[in-house]
Amino acid sequence: MDMEIDRAVQHQRQQQPPPSQPPDGNGSRSPLSTSPASPASGRPRTKIIRNQNACDACRARKVRCLYGAGETRCQGCSFLDIQCTHDRPRRRRGPPNKHAQQQHQLQAHQQQQQQQQPLPGPSNQQSPSASDITSPDLNLAYQTSPASSSAHTHTTPRSHSHISASAVAAAAATITAAAATSSSASSVPDLRALIGAPSPNTGPGPAPANYLALFAPEALVQRILHDWFEKVHSLAPVLHRRRFMHRLKAGEAASDRTFCALVVSVCAATVATLRRADYHPVTVEGCLDFIEDHHLLDHGIRKPAYSLDWCIAMYNIGTSASSMNENGLGDMGSFHGMSEAAAGARFLAYYRMADLDMSEQQLLKRLFWLIFAAYCSADIFGRLSVSIVSHQENRAHLRPLPLSDSQLDTGPQLSPADGLPPWHGDTTSYVPGLNHLSDLFLIWHEAQTAPVSVYGTQEDALKHYLARIQTIIDSFPPELRWRGGLSRPGHITEGHDTQIANLFITSLNIRSNLLQKFGSTVKTRAAEHQRIVDDLLEILYHMPQHVLEQNGNSLIPKLRDCGAAYMEQMNIGDGGDGGGGPETLVSESARLKLEKLLRKLDDIDCWPGLPGVESPQSNRQ
């Protein structure tokens, strides 16, 4: 195709009359000529002048852009009958600036809200998305370069209805052929610019500004988000409250589908965790269906759009789906969400960490270890899971810093007039609890992979891992240490109590699982299981009921696993001295402890919609 076009242009040049020459025969050279003078002619070599105003079509085809003075179209564009751009400013190169793109979308949304109160009609013209790469061929605005992002202004797109369909089709065919034959990657943006490829977050369907309004009333969404940060955030500190609320208040959920899905997924995780709270009509099933029906988290196969918001949303979906049925982490939806979150988090941690700012890097590291904790929990209970930690990880580099939201604040903030009251997480960091939880699971992970022969016998390996668990517990900071029935000091928040319950019950569950894995003498196992159940009852009957319930469904399988292992150990019998057979408990005290454990488990194992669980107060003391 390119050869035919070049031959046609050359044929037109041959048919044109030659330019008039001076009497001496030394005609002046064209300023666009790139051929140097011959040394044999005796004339000095002429400096090569490169045409910097070549049009986009000629530049994409890598041919010379020839045009006369005052001509608006070059010879190649005249032959193709397409719009020529040699007399217009060159398009900006390089990747789009994320900050300028977000500011452009935000300002466009604010202008739309000011100008249009009702829904826009089909005749209204919408400005192109800032993430679209457009071409001057179609007289559209183009994205500013990163250097000019601080002085970014709106450019009103000019009408391009005068361009004929045949011209656009011919130009698209030309650029497509050039892209297929050229090894340079610079022709790909030209193709996208010419055909006007849509943004990944745009597409057919209702206007994105209506998504949250279709999901739930604004007051209900605000109440759910408030409960998340007050009661659940300490267990999963993956959101920066000031930045998150600023983005929500600025209307970013109207222009960014991924952020809208993140908001809905936080609502789903809150409803799944705080089961006794009334958030009608918002349910976990409704949240997941809403995200799927509106394609808020869809991404391509060849160009998946991994982002921190996307990974957090998929993690919330995984944890929420696990609470919808008794399969827990074995649920297909939970496995899918957690696997996608793990894939995205690992990719960002390996290849995109330098592209994130300091705040996003810390949040990504926190998410990484939360996914690791979910993986270990599923593996302990015999569920299928996706490993996220391998020998390649630099674990010290991935360990998040114990920073509070104020120390992490590098982005825009909401002013006090915007209605964002002070929050305990502004000055308190819950990352130390997450790091200690990761240390506990790393010990369990090592116990599954390290050979027993390193420590001698199985009994020696068991003692080694139990001692390491106790060392981690002894290293807890004061705000995470067990206080029994003592009152909480002023600098310790309720979020710390929630973390204490999670940390100690998790450590007891890991100890119980290690006892089952390595085994030991019957006497040693019985004594260790006895201590585990005693500690469990101490925690369950001294912690306030609402603190245990703020851990959601995560504590239930751990308590069941510990209770089942204890009951199995206490049911050991040979029908000898006791004469009661294998179903006879070793002692009456063991039976009483099991009853107390099951009674407390029945209190906190709340399933919304079932009879007898409507009241948020416990029926037993």
TrEMBL record:
Gene3D superfamilies: Zn(2)-C6 fungal-type DNA-binding domain (4.10.240.10). GO terms for molecular function: DNA-binding transcription factor activity, RNA polymerase II-specific; zinc ion binding. Pfam families: Zn_clus (PF00172). Residues 54-86 form the Zn(2)-C6 fungal-type domain. Residues 28-41, 100-118, 144-154 have a biased composition (Low complexity). Residues 1-47, 87-163, 402-422 are annotated as: Disordered. The keyword Chloroplast does not apply. The keyword Transferase does not apply. InterPro entries: AtrR-like, Zn2-C6_fun-type_DNA-bd_sf, Zn2Cys6_DnaBD. Keywords: Nucleus. Residues 122-143, 404-413 have a biased composition (Polar residues). Transmembrane segments: none annotated. This is Zn(2)-C6 fungal-type domain-containing protein. It comes from Colletotrichum fructicola (strain Nara gc5) (Anthracnose fungus).
